[in-house]
Design brief:
Order of helices and strands of chain A: HHHHHHHH
CATH superfamily of the largest domain in chain B: Cytochrome c oxidase-like, subunit I domain
CATH architecture of chain A: Up-down Bundle
Number of domains of chain A: 1
CATH class of the largest domain in chain B: Mainly Alpha
Helix content of chain A: over 70%
Distance between the termini of chain A: 82 Å
Distance between the termini of chain B: 22 Å
Radius of gyration of chain B: 25 Å
Number of helices of chain A: 8
Shape of chain B: globular
Number of domains of chain B: 2
Oligomer: heterodimer
Number of strands of chain A: 0
Chain lengths: 226, 622
């Protein structure tokens, strides 16, 4: 394109034709999420390898608060719903509704992070510091990196909200919101795995005195029967 | 172009230092990768030379044990992460857009970010030489040798943090090339018409984006242990050092295919061209590359046979490791089948490619011999392993890389290298390589452990070590010949023309060196080996195919240069670098690291707010 032709064009990138028809940035996000699976997979594997291996307390059963985390999990999963609504609003070009749903998503994301800050602080007060035992090191690293992902997503959504508020005509595009949505849903899905493994299954692990987790489970079952 | 207030305009110069610092042109970034990789090839070579001089005779005291440890650690780390991988990136950058008929990569600024992050990470890795605390735990830095009480000083912190930075660079490049190859092919370039080098780049990039997160986590855990008192590899707290080995090799085995698959791709381009025959079994070569990539995830514990994982684990990994030799062997038969009854032209690239095939077979065979876990018990941690890794990485990857350098030299520089000097270089390399590494098989089977800084007389290792050291000097002479040939021919070589080899791929259809816009017209791909088809159709009409004529570059829309990748890369490395600084006060590292984070954020914000193109640039006026 000659400069004369572009001189009065608006500063919006023209979407290029691609081989697959999928936008470059969207494909990049999919590849990144594939990569991120291995990142969280390795952190989760570390946690599972060290599950029940700590030799000093506090152990998960002593401090993990499953009911409270269930609430924060519910908040995070509902934010996926509001994210879907935001993407739908962006696609249909409804700028006002887009901003509303983005704000709802941001508030719920912040709510989740608030729960995490509360939880980390409560754990610290009860004596579980980063260097305390294997449980603390692997727990804080895994959930900490998940929290960092959520925080990054919140900043991303704030940026999109600001852009949307400043440009009533057409920006951000449906694609911009869609890509942020992909990331947001991925982070939620990872949390489902973390919540299941670290809270619903691992949250009741007691120390070595209480025996292996499988033994505890068996004792619990036999307790029911007898 | 509408100016957005408060936004820094994009740079407009394409020449001089700023032109190079702000470039987003894939060909220039490729050149930067190549020069950097060759520089570190010499650094790693000097480190190897120090080790060879030390080991040339028994009871040598040329260097201390500590310095020897630093040398083998830095030699391995440098050659793998700062030489072979960036040489791969050199070819990816220069060739992929040309081979698929694209104007640039999918994300030109991300590409520049990859290079600068790589360069800064490579420099950070060498900070230890300035402060006198060099990483010294080996290139795979086994826990818990790396724990703070056993590795005092900052050497291991430097190693872990700069490897983390290099990982960011590799990941960014991996994302970029996956998207570029999947999404930017010229019309008609279906997946099964892509040149094999493009296929191997795609496979390598997918391995990169999947394998690097694992080493990222391993390094996070190591850094957390060393810097923040975590317990991941702390045995006293119940931690398991074997976890490091699993994480490292789960990354590390795909990594060795990340190192070798680009070379296999290069060889798959060179051999058909100089055999005057299409590649034998094109789909089989591609599928075996894919199978290697998938199976590379199921063989990692063959690095850990002597750890004591038990007979079942050892048997399973013995079998999977033997199985992965099958697709590799398939490729070798395909290359030989391509040469079979071909009209072979023994130019330097072809010699290097044949050298690759021959030496890789030797390395592959010794590899199969320690795939057998009982046999591996005899070989573990001996010079036999050192011989094996150098046959596959020097005889394999480096020979493949040199084949590529000679093959595309006319395309990249527009001039021919000196053929006689090229052949001398090949023979010096081939002889020197075998002289250096073949005796190590014997030394290893005679029980010489790897990584010992000296040995006593009487074990029967002296002769083999002296031969290896002599071989090193043959390699040095060969490398000097190459450098002389390379530098001299850039200025004084014969003009190459656009297609000196009568090659089959698209990059040869445009002038040498390629114009900044690559293709004036988007090519329409008719089939596999498309440029051969074009030339054959023209020959049937009694015509020859000239290089695509040049057009005025200012009529082509190209990505503008940008400052921001450089800023973001600097911030990224400073996040890691800041953690290494204490000035005698331990807590200063956190604010310093935070400053790096701020710089990176500023870089990213500037990046995303940058206007799509410069207002006026001098494209085409240089």
């Amino acid at each position: 394109m000659a400069h004369a032709e572009t001189a009065h064009a608006p500063p919006v990138e023209v979407e290029e034709a691609t081989t697959t028809g999928i936008n470059h940035r969207k494909l990049l996000m999919w590849v990144f999420l594939g990569s991120d699976c291995l990142f969280f997979g390795s952190l989760i594997a570390t946690y599972m390898v060290y599950r029940g291996q700590s030799i000093v307390g506090p152990y998960p059963a002593d401090i993990v608060d499953v009911p409270i985390t269930t609430i924060s999990t519910f908040v995070l999963l509902m934010s996926s719903f509001s994210m879907v609504m935001a993407v739908a609003a962006a696609r249909s070009g409804n700028q006002k509704r887009l901003i509303q749903w983005l704000l709802v998503t941001i508030v719920m994301g912040c709510g989740f992070i608030g729960f995490q800050v509360y939880e980390f602080n409560a754990f610290r007060v009860e004596g579980l510091r980063y260097e305390t035992n294997l449980f603390s090191s692997s727990f804080y690293t895994l959930t900490g990196f998940h929290g960092a992902h959520v925080t990054l997503g919140i900043f991303w959504l704030i940026c999109i909200t600001i852009i949307a508020a400043r440009n009533p005509a057409g920006r951000p595009s449906g694609l911009d919101v869609d890509i942020a949505g992909l990331y947001w849903h991925f982070v939620d899905i990872v949390w489902i795995v973390i919540f299941t493994l670290l809270y619903l299954i691992g949250g009741f692990d007691a120390g070595p005195d209480a025996g292996h987790a499988a033994v505890q489970g068996w004792n619990w079952v036999t307790g029911l029967v007898s | 172009m509408v100016t957005i207030t408060g936004v820094i305009p994009r740079p407009t110069t394409y020449s001089g230092l700023w032109g190079w610092l702000t470039t987003v042109d894939h060909k220039r970034i490729g050149a930067l990768y190549g020069v950097t990789a060759f520089f570190f090839f010499m650094v790693g070579g000097i480190e190897a030379g120090i080790m060879r001089l030390q080991l040339a005779q028994a009871d040598s005291d040329l260097v201390s044990a500590e310095w020897f440890n630093a040398m083998f650690t830095m030699h391995g780390t440098t050659m793998i992460f700062l030489v072979i991988m960036p040489f791969g990136a050199t070819f990816f950058n220069f060739l992929i857009p040309l081979m698929i008929g694209a104007r640039d990569v999918a994300f030109p600024r991300l590409n520049a970010f990859s290079y600068w992050t790589f360069l800064f990470g490579a420099l950070l890795m060498h900070v230890g030489f300035i402060i006198g605390q060099v990483p010294d735990a080996g290139w795979f830095s086994y826990a818990n040798l790396t724990a703070a009480p056993f590795s005092v000083g900052k050497g291991l912190d430097i190693w872990a943090l700069s490897l983390q930075v290099l990982g960011v660079a590799s990941l960014a490049a991996g994302f970029n090339f996956v998207v570029t190859i999947i999404n930017m092919r010229a019309p008609g370039m279906t997946l099964m018409r892509m040149p094999v080098f493009v296929w191997m780049t795609l496979v390598t990039s997918i391995l990169l984006v999947l394998a690097f997160p694992i080493i990222t986590v391993a390094l996070i855990e190591l850094t957390a242990d060393r810097q923040f008192g975590a317990n991941f590899f702390n045995v006293a707290a119940g931690g398991d050092p074997i976890l490091w080995q699993h994480l490292f090799w789960l990354f590390g085995h795909p990594e060795v295919y990340i190192l070798i698959l680009p070379a296999m791709g290069i060889v798959s381009e060179v051999i058909p061209t100089f055999s005057r025959k299409p590649l034998f079994g094109y789909p089989v070569i591609i599928f075996s590359g894919i199978v290697i990539a998938i199976m590379s995830w199921a063989v990692w514990s063959h690095h850990m046979f002597t750890v004591g994982l038990g007979p079942i684990a050892n048997s399973v990994f013995t079998i999977t490791t033997m199985l992965i030799a099958v697709p590799t062997g398939v490729k070798i038969f395909n290359w030989i089948g391509t040469m079979w009854q071909g009209s072979i032209d023994l130019r330097t690239p072809m010699l290097m490619a044949i050298g690759f095939v021959a030496l890789f077979i030797v390395g592959g065979l010794s590899g199969v011999s320690h795939a057998v876990s009982p046999s591996d018990f005899q070989q573990q941690d001996t010079y036999y392993i050192v011989a094996h890794i150098h046959y596959v990485l020097f005889g394999g990857a480096i020979f493949g890389i040199f084949a590529g350098i000679y093959y595309w030299y006319p395309k990249i520089t527009g001039r021919m290298y000196n053929e006689l000097l090229g052949k001398i270089h090949f023979w010096l390399m081939f002889v020197g390589m075998n002289l250096t590494f073949f005796p190590m098989h014997y030394a290893g089977l005679n029980g010489m452990p790897r990584r010992i800084y000296t040995y006593s007389e009487g074990f029967g290792w002296e002769g083999m070590n002296l031969l290896a050291t002599a071989g090193f000097f043959v390699l040095v002479i060969g490398t000097l010949v190459f450098m002389h040939n390379f530098l001299r021919s850039v200025k004084k070589g014969e003009p190459a023309g656009h297609d000196p080899w009568d090659a089959p791929t698209l990059e040869w259809s445009i002038s040498s060196p390629p114009p900044v816009y690559n293709f004036a017209e988007v090519p329409q791909v008719k089939g596999q080996d498309d440029y051969w088809i074009t030339k054959r159709q023209a020959a049937a009409r009694g015509e020859t195919v000239p290089a695509e004529p040049h057009i005025d570059p200012s009529t082509v829309h190209l990505p503008s240069p940008s400052y921001w990748p450089l800023v973001a890369a600097f911030g990224t490395v400073w996040i890691a670098g800041g953690l290494l600084i204490d000035f005698g006060w331990d807590y200063i590292r956190f604010p310093l690291s935070f400053v790096g984070g701020l710089i990176a954020i500023i870089g990213v914000i500037g990046w995303s707010n940058e206007p799509p193109a410069a207002e006026h640039d001098d494209a085409g006026h240089h």
